[in-house]
Amino acid sequence: MTIFQFPQDFMWGTATAAYQIEGAYQEGGRSLSIWDTFAHTPGKVFNGDNGNVACDSYHRYEEDIRLMKELGIRTYRFSVSWPRIFPNGDGEVNQEGLDYYHRVVDLLNENGIEPFCTLYHWDLPQVLQDAGGWENRRTIQAFVQFAETMFREFHGKIHHWLTFNEPWCIAFLSNMLGVHAPGLTNLQTAIDVGHHLLVAHGLSVRRFRELGTSGQIGIAPNVSWAVPYSTSEEDKAACARTISLHSDWFLQPIYQGSYPQFLVDWFAEQGASVPIQDGDMDIIREPIDMIGINYYSMSVNRFNPEAGFLQSEEINMGLPVTDIGWPVESRGLYEVLHYLQKYGNIDIYITENGACINDDIVNGKVQDDRRISYMRQHLVQVHRAIHDGLHVKGYMAWSLMDNFEWAEGYNMRFGMIHVDFRTQVRTPKESYYWYQNVVNNNWLETRR
Predict the structure, then answer these.
(1) Which terminus of the chain, N or C, has fewer Cβ atoms within 10 Å?
(2) Active-site residue flag, 234
(3) Tell me, what CATH number does 136's domain have?
(4) In 3-state terms, what secondary structure has residue 253?
């Protein structure tokens, strides 16, 4: 048996997102988001599922926080529904929406659980999308107003902030590949959106400083790690594009004030360019305190001119996969954490990591051993990185509970708590109890 001891101040936690768990989509003054529109469009989401009710956490947050307390976590990463705060995108604030989040945050703090707030987890108000969405620079100013309102309201209550969750998904998965809302398929649009996100991020960080808001602020990219299938230069370049588009495309402008030139050139060959205006890069480079890392899997890739706009094809290597089809290979987490040291030994939080395992209730229990195995493997890699001297400050398992899994609807389950979506009954899985033990001990054990 091997024991992996974690630092005394390590922040164990878990994570969710507003549209995936809250429900109450027409309550409390909330307007529609792009995900309401997308999910209600036939053929966009598995089985026609939507987030109208989701986990009904809007009404059941007290029960959910009680389960967090019993789990023993020190932090909870949640996101704020922008259309609950500004039903018109900007302008007049909806006090009822703010009051809801005050109740959630106050109860978290009362239970000794540090609120870790993501401002934007994909639910843009539909009214802003109708005016051009993130392609329109007006949305940048609307976001800054939203962010400033949250900073003012929750100063002293929330000490960890993230501006955007997974900007690659917001820009490319949603506007180039069309898989997520708003479902567009244009490379130039994706690049425009990504750049405007970064400008909104930088302006919000600047406002955070100007207001003297307490705590730390950063951003949470979904990172990727890809290993070349062969030693060919084409395969190596395909992997570099895969890795860099997820991480460097968004982090290099923040830390170094420029986009990766080889990707700029790659996109130029496809007729797309970054819409940089005077002053944008200085705004984007506003210093941040930490980054969140969302990591799920690594891949083995090779060059294939038919494999989409990056021409990088993932090869099936026969590895075990989760029920959503993602290979289980924890080494990529260790590798990408080291890769990011190019930006300095910055504070890093693992803001999402988990496995889609669709085991159901049998005799009152969910014996999700594959999820436990996944989490154990990845936590060992986190420990390795800390042992190497990297500033990995916390780990937030995705997810607290089964929820609306975006385009997969309710077909894929990532939670440590089983949710019966007909009755809303919550049943902690065996992974919940395993993680509870890890958190309470502050160490991890592995056996041969």
Answers:
(1) C
(2) no
(3) 3.20.20.80
(4) helix
